[in-house]
Structure formats: structure tokens, C-alpha cells
Design a protein that fits this description.
This protein is of the alpha+beta class and 632 residues long. Helices cover 23% and strands 22% of the residues. It is built from 14 helices and 33 strands. The strands form ten sheets. Strands 2, 5, 6, 17, 18, 21, 23, 24, 29, 32 and 33 form an eleven-stranded mixed sheet that branches. Strands 20-19-22-28 form a four-stranded antiparallel sheet. It has a three-stranded antiparallel sheet with strand order 7-10-11, with helices on one face. α3 runs parallel beside α7. 53% of the residues are buried.
Length: 632
């Protein structure tokens, strides 16, 4: 059976007629607030199913989102994530095929609401010519609004923002007002057991355009969230002040916070440094603080994939996923990338660097789990290829969006087709509540997907055998091993890894499961190896010269469709490392690949009869990455 576009006829019609950016969206259709009386939710003994959500969504309160035309408030964003149909900022009907289980609205803590304030200021009341120009451009058409957004982002990243826009007293007052209103929205739509809304914000630190961004999430409710304001990045030159803020919050309120780094691929090598902030060797205390406050990273999202890179993993045929365009330089493309920078930008290399630092200090600063999210600035958390609403409201569905210039740079530019459709955070929580989701993130029992909702489990132990998959095998693995994100202490023999993946119920079949291993050898050099451990059609497909026979390709670009006539709906195995060395510290994580499917660019080409640029990728193999398990 062919899988193609899932839009209804009415929605497809709506997609063709896109109004101007400043046409008012339907802002009045508010659903009834969720009942504030919360019934207790009884957690399960162990996680029974993954919860899928987004820890990185921007609404009209983010300065760049508003500047590019987003008029959707946290209320609309939460309603959409819960499964309601809404009208996007550009006037398009928008609805998820399935609701999310949880959402974090992560608006920028810096200059929160300032572009809204600038937009609503009369031109005659502005003295600064830059602010006057920006204000007028925001009142122009969607292209002018997008232009000013890029300029404002670049000004923030380079430290050249007009001071009147970020005057401390003005910003503090706006932040208090907007944060309190956001807290009210999050509380209104939080429904434990059904849908979880968590409090959070984005700390958007950039050093000369190099991204060191983090999303901060609270475990707590409104009372503790109101005790603080979102912490701004301006004036800081590293994450340490953020950790101080988080530490002070926990000490004063008794609550908990964690930070999720994102887009290390746009840091030009400084995100996963081997050194401390002062340029000297990272100390044990610095490593401890980073590991404590940042237990997971966002490894895939709209602005590229940060799992691996072919320059670092030359023997990995799948290492280039989502790298095109984003590998050229930092976020504003003000500085191009040099080969020596890549090692500090990608998760797999960072995991290896963590082992190196641990050998020297006794603490691993990069012992992180992995999730995905969107980083959508439209207020719409969409990660499906056939329902992609773009990065900004200017990028919402339309005939030309895949070929537009996103970032003009020094020597290279990013084009619309370089965007990914986004990612999702998959969390093995014992209940759909703030506490259970936060605790799962903290213990790293989470995984990333590039959008599909495949179910992936991974465990490690010393006594698992191929006969495991009888009876309640999940209960057995929890009692006799550790799940993804865990540490397997020393034992006898060779560790065995249990991996299982189930396809997205309405998505593509699976190609294979791989296990990625990293370790430090006897010479003190970091190494990696990738093992194909189970795959579809095993009687037909074999490993030859170190490569597994490809799964095949059923994608029909003329109709933006594919067939599940290849691949498998489920893959599982118990695998032992044939190269295990006792006493050698190593990490292992699973990568699950789907069969090839159309990208959003292919759906756009069919839907709008648009001709893609020669460099546009029209199909790919979407995937999931589990958090690692550390052995030794």
C-alpha cells in the first residue's frame, strides 16, 4: 500500500491560498480551560510506553518569532499540541494527525516581548534610526518582516543590538508580565495523565554568532515557577552563570531544573570543548556541574542533525543525515567552519571526549542522553514530513519556501530545503506527569527521533540470552539489567544488549537497528565502531565487506509516496559485543533506521507543483537515536 499526503481535500485547498503575513490569525477561538482540579495519577512500576513530545517550541513571545510574523500565543500552541485544529499565523488550517503527550514552550529569555513592543510603538516615538527601520519593516509584507527578523537575530548574536530595545528596566517589566501570563497558560492546559505542559524557557547564549543555547525545564508547578524570571544570556560568556541560577533556584525553592543543550552543530566547535571556560584543562568540578545540570542534549531538530558527521565518522555510511547547509558555518554564517571545529559539535564525538576527560578527572561531563525536538518558531509543533509548517511563519507551506535563501553568509548560504522537518523527544516515563517526565529526562531514559513515533527500547545486562523474548521480557530486563541512559557496573563475561524497535503505527517500516560503540584504546585514543545487529529480510540481505545490503527504495517522487512492501514492522535481538574488552570503559547506543521515505520538500513539490533546486534532497531514511548505556 502506498503512503502519501495525508491532508484532507479542504486542508489541501487551504494550503494553496496563503494570505499575507500580517493578516490576523484566528486568535479568539479559545477552547475551554482544562479543569484545574488534578486527580492523582498512579505511576506504573516501570515505563510501559514512550511518551512523545517537544521540549523546544516558540510562540509570539519570542522576539524573532514575532518579528517573522508569529501571532500564536502559548494558548494556541498548547491547544494545537493537544490535538485541536487552529489557524496558523499565515491563515492556514493546521492540525496534528495525533496529539503530543507533552510540550515545553521555550520562548527566548532574552528580549522577551521586545519586538511586540517595538511593533506597537508609534514611529514618531522612536529616535533610533535602526529601531525605526525595524519597526516599519515589521509592518510591511512577510518578506520584509522576515528580513528584519534575520537582522535582529544577527544583531543579538553579534552583540550589536540597540540598547534602547533591551533597556534593563523595560525588559524586566515585560519579562515579569509575559512570564506570569505564560505560567497561567501552561497551568490551564496541563492535564496529568493525558497531556503534560511543563514550564520552561530558552537561554540563547551566542558567542560571536557561535551557538551555546540551552532549553531550561522546570519539574515544578506555578508557585515555584513564579519565584523566578527566565534567565537571560546577555552579558554571560559561558553556561556557568546559568548553572548558578539553576542551583540558586533549587536551593531557594526546593524545586528542580535541568538544561538541554541544542544545536551544537552551529557552535563552530566550542560546544563540546575539551577545555574549561578559561581555556585550561576542564576540571573535575566543571565536569561534575555540567553532567549534573545537563543530563540530555537535543540531537536533532529543524536546524540540522547533530548525531554524527562523515568527516568524523568516515566509515559510517549514514553519518551525513541532516548536515547539508548547517555544516558550512555558525548560525548567522558570519564565520565559516574549519575541519578542526567538527569534533566539538557532534554528539558521538562528544561522548568519546567525555570518556577522555573522565580518564583524566574521574568525571564524565558528556555522559548525556539524547532527544529530538522542533525549535519551531511558528507556535506549531509539527515534526511530520507531510505536515511541516516551517521554522518561522514566513516558512509556512507555500510554493517557493524550499528554494528561498534562509541565511546569506560570507561564502555559503543556507536554503529553505536545508531545514529538517524537526524532531521529537521520546520519554520512557512511568506516568504522563511533569514529575515522571522530568525524572525520565534526568535519568536519561529517553531517545530522539527525527519525527516518526517509533517505539525503541534498549537494555544491557550480563545474563540476557536469545530466549529472553518470552513472557514479560521487559520486566525481566528492568530487574536484571539497566535501560538506556544507565551505567552497567562490572560483571562476569560479555555484556549483552537487548534492543527492540516497533515502527510508527502510521509510518514507515524499519530497515535496521545498529549499535554504535565508542571507547578509548590502550594508547589513549578515542575509537568508534558501528554494528548492524538486526535487519529486515535477513534471508536476502547479508553483510559483505563490512556493509549490509541496502533495504531498497519504494519512494515515488511523482506522487510523494512510498510503500511498506519492504522493511519490517518490528525488529528485536539480543546482541553481544564481539570486541568487548574487560575493564575498558565504553558507551553503546542504538540507531534505528526507517526505509526511505519522502522529505517535506517532495511533498511540497507535489502539493504546489514546485520545482526543487538541484541541491534539494527529496527523500531520506528517518531514524531514532537512543541514549547510551555506559559499560565498565
Amino acid at each position: 500500500m502506498k503512503r502519501s499526503l495525508l491532508f484532507s481535500a479542504s486542508a489541501a485547498t487551504a494550503l494553496i491560498a496563503v494570505p499575507l503575513l500580517n493578516q490576523p490569525a484566528n486568535m479568539s477561538a479559545e477552547a475551554s480551560p482544562i479543569n484545574g482540579s488534578e486527580k492523582p495519577v498512579t505511576p506504573s512500576p516501570y515505563p510501559e510506553r514512550p511518551l512523545f513530545g517537544d521540549t523546544h517550541l516558540h510562540t509570539t513571545n519570542s522576539f524573532d518569532a514575532f518579528g517573522a510574523g508569529n501571532r500564536l500565543s502559548p494558548n494556541e500552541a498548547l491547544r494545537f499540541a493537544r490535538g485541536e485544529e487552529i489557524i496558523s499565523s499565515s491563515g492556514i488550517q493546521a492540525k496534528l494527525s495525533r496529539p503530543l503527550d507533552f510540550l515545553v514552550i521555550a520562548d527566548h529569555s532574552d528580549a522577551i516581548g521586545v519586538t511586540t513592543d517595538l511593533y506597537n510603538t508609534a514611529e514618531a516615538d522612536l529616535n533610533d534610526p535602526v529601531l525605526k527601520r525595524w519597526r516599519n519593516l515589521m509592518h510591511g509584507d512577510r518578506n520584509q518582516a522576515y528580513l528584519v527578523t534575520r537582522e535582529i537575530i544577527a544583531a543579538f548574536q553579534s552583540g550589536k543590538i540597540p540598547q534602547e530595545l533591551i533597556r534593563p528596566d523595560r525588559v524586566t517589566a515585560m519579562t515579569r508580565r509575559i512570564w506570569d501570563a505564560q505560567i497561567d497558560s501552561v497551568e490551564r492546559y496541563n492535564e496529568p495523565g493525558k497531556f503534560t505542559a511543563l514550564h520552561g524557557f530558552e537561554f540563547s547564549l551566542s558567542i560571536k554568532g557561535n551557538s551555546l543555547h540551552r532549553n531550561v525545564i522546570l519539574r515544578d508547578g506555578a508557585d515555584k515557577a513564579r519565584s523566578v524570571l527566565p534567565f537571560p544570556s546577555q552579558g554571560t560568556n559561558g553556561p556557568e552563570p546559568l548553572w548558578d541560577y539553576m542551583e540558586a533556584y533549587e536551593r531557594a525553592s526546593g524545586g528542580k531544573m535541568l538544561a538541554i543543550p541544542h544545536n551544537p552543530n552551529l557552535s563552530n566547535g566550542i560546544f563540546f570543548a575539551l577545555t574549561g571556560q578559561d581555556g585550561g584543562p576542564m576540571t573535575a568540578e566543571q565536569a561534575r556541574r555540567r553532567a549534573a545540570f545537563e543530563p540530555v542534549i537535543e540531537v536533532t531538530q529543524i536546524k540540522g542533525d547533530s548525531e554524527s558527521h562523515s568527516l568524523l565518522s568516515r566509515n559510517d555510511e549514514f553519518a551525513d543525515y541532516g548536515d547539508a547547509g548547517w555544516e558550512n558555518g555558525n548560525a548567522p554564517l558570519s564565520q565559516l567552519k574549519k575541519p578542526e571545529m567538527f569534533g566539538g559539535e557532534y554528539a558521538r564525538e562528544a561522548l568519546k571526549r567525555g570518556l577522555l576527560i573522565e580518564q583524566r578527572t574521574g568525571v564524565n561531563p558528556y555522559a548525556f542522553g539524547m532527544i529530538g525536538s522542533t525549535d519551531s518558531h511558528t507556535g506549531l509543533s509539527t515534526a511530520d514530513e507531510n505536515n511541516f509548517f516551517g521554522k518561522f511563519s514566513n516558512d509556512e507551506p507555500g510554493a517557493g519556501r524550499m528554494n528561498t535563501v534562509v541565511n546569506p553568509g560570507i561564502a555559503e548560504s543556507r536554503i529553505g530545503y536545508h531545514y529538517l522537518a524537526g524532531g521529537l523527544a521520546a520519554v520512557w516515563a512511568t506516568a504522563n506527569t511533569r514529575e515522571a517526565i522530568f525524572d525520565a529526562l534526568l535519568r536519561r531514559e529517553v531517545y530522539a527521533t527525527t519525527g516518526p513515533r517509533m517505539s525503541v527500547r534498549m537494555f544491557a545486562g550480563w545474563s540476557f540470552s536469545s530466549s529472553l523474548f518470552t513472557g514479560d521480557w521487559v520486566k525481566a530486563t528492568y530487574s536484571k539489567g539497566v535501560p538506556m541512559g544507565g551505567n552497567l557496573s562490572a560483571g562476569k563475561g560479555t555484556p549483552s544488549f537487548v534492543v527492540q524497535a516497533l515502527k510508527d503505527p502510521i509510518g514507515a517500516n524499519l530497515d535496521r537497528i545498529q549499535i554504535v560503540k565508542g571507547w578509548v584504546d590502550a594508547k589513549g585514543l578515542a575509537q568508534e565502531k558501528i554494528y548492524d545487529v538486526v535487519w529486515s529480510a535477513p534471508k536476502k540481505r547479508k553483510i559483505a565487506k563490512g556493509r549490509l545490503t541496502p533495504v531498497g527504495d519504494t519512494v515515488d517522487l511523482a506522487t510523494a509516496s512510498y510503500s511498506n512492501s519492504i522493511g519490517a514492522p518490528e525488529l528485536r535481538t539480543v546482541w553481544r559485543d564481539p570486541d568487548f574488552t574487560k575493564g575498558q570503559k565504553a558507551f553503546y547506543y542504538a540507531r534505528v533506521l526507517e526505509i526511505p521515505t519522502p522529505r517535506w520538500t517532495a511533498y511540497d513539490a507535489v502539493r504546489f507543483k514546485a520545482k526543487p533546486s538541484a541541491g534539494a534532497k527529496l527523500k531520506d531514511q528517518e531514524r531514532a537515536y537512543t541514549s547510551p548505556i555506559w559499560v565498565g
